[in-house]
From TrEMBL:
It is a multi-pass membrane protein. InterPro entries: Cation/H_exchanger_CPA1, Cation/H_exchanger_TM. Residues 16-405 form the Cation/H+ exchanger transmembrane domain. GO terms for biological process: regulation of intracellular pH; sodium ion import across plasma membrane. It is found in: Cell membrane. This is Sodium:proton antiporter. One of its GO terms (molecular function) is potassium:proton antiporter activity. It comes from Swingsia samuiensis. It comes from the Bacteria. The chain crosses the membrane at residues 7-27, 33-50, 57-79, 85-109, 185-207, 214-231, 268-292, 304-329, 381-405.
Amino acid sequence: MSDLARFEFFITVVSVILTLALVAKYLRLPTSVAFIGGGICMVALPWVPNITIDPDLILVMFLPPLLMSGAYFTVWSSFRENLLGILQLAVGAVFFTTLIVGVVTHFLVPSLPWSVCFALGAILAPPDAVAAKSVLTQVKLPERLTTLMEGESLLNDASSLVIYRVAISSFLTGTFSIVHATISFAVLSIGGLLLGGVLAYFFILILRRISDPLIVICLTLLGPWMAYIIGDRIGVSGVMATVTMGLMFGWRQHDIFGARTRVEAGSFWALLIFLMEALIFVTIGLGLRSVFSMGGNLFATKTALFTAVAGVILATIVARFLWVYAAVIVSKLVSKIFKLNWTFSHDEWKHATIIGWTGMRGVVSLAVALSTPSNMPGREFVLLCAFVLILITVVGQGTTLGVLIRCLGIKDAQDDKNSLLNIAQARLKMASAQREEIEKLAISPTGKVLHPRLLEQYRFRENAIKRYNEQPSVFQPEKEAHYQTLLKIVAKGREELLKLHKAGRIHDSVVRQLEYELDLQEMSAEVSHR
């Protein structure tokens, strides 16, 4: 296949992706489900080529930006408060699932070495950040649950990749040392944490001194790849380094990015992440072409192969439920025995069920499975299990998560947020602070009003927000009418601008500048209307 043909196929795939995104939105499906389904359908078309991609390239190309984006938008305060729960899932659940899957695999396929069985467990253990985000954006959950699952998906890749490395090393060398494995895990994790912190510190120093949005955006794109690649080269966790950098960027974003940079970077990263997530899941769907012929010589019949795969998949899913339920029991026992002041939700068991069900796998499981040594016994079986688990969890669990939430009666509880200001209340605080500041600036020491229009504008704004907060239902029609009037005013300005341009009375550069101003006015009206 020529390079030109590859590019043409890429354009075709992007066109399919956009169509699938619209279909998913119309049918209210997780986009990951639509993209995988589209990839599966494309496999049946005779003109679709059989494209193979280096699995290491998949990890390096897609994983760092996706991890950076997820970490950047993590709510730092919630992440810190729920760090223990996140680590229970990101480390504990991964180790436990690896152990269960390894034992079950060896029981079902005794001819496989223990090292290969545990390598398979490490491959299947971590829920994926991309898959989790794709599904969680479609449902409403209590903030604590969302924080736990998103935080887990950011950190569990580091745990699984360390276990996988140890298992493959044991297969290649024929030896295993629990001490060596523990030291390796500590070095990789702590080293990645330190590397990410150091790189983030230097990037922040540089970014604070650059005002050009284009260069800043390029640096934010370069950062995650640098952290991941450098970490991999020096023998520490590139995943941990990337996540640490993303968390620090998100924490310091208000200090290092200007208003224009935040707006432009937000649009750029939204487009980049959308395309990357879509390409990953379409690639998973396309990969099914080779799955149909997998199985190897380990099994005498297709029935035996099906039984083994089903057993491994079931063990992977059940292990997660066992861990989260056990974590609830142990936490309550520890709190009771040691008389700790831990608080538990009345819906703790329901929450555990939701966490157990949101174990969607994705790009990491796929890429690591593809990167297994070609001479490893049972490699095709490992690949088959990875593909089937991704399909079952993304399509099966992803599409039924909303139904499960409704059946359990879980809502986006506001109890945890009672101590926090909502948007309207925070907006009033801002308006009051702005009004106080303009009163200082608009009135001279002699009492002369220097900026009467600004003073009137900000006083009116504070009063309007205050009235709306006191009686939102009464003033909602007035707010809606105000919004629609603003849109009509902007539309009239745009109409006059285009009329002048068509008449040849203004230059194209003037049109672009003035239309940009109109766009900002329209966007400002839309944001205020929320």
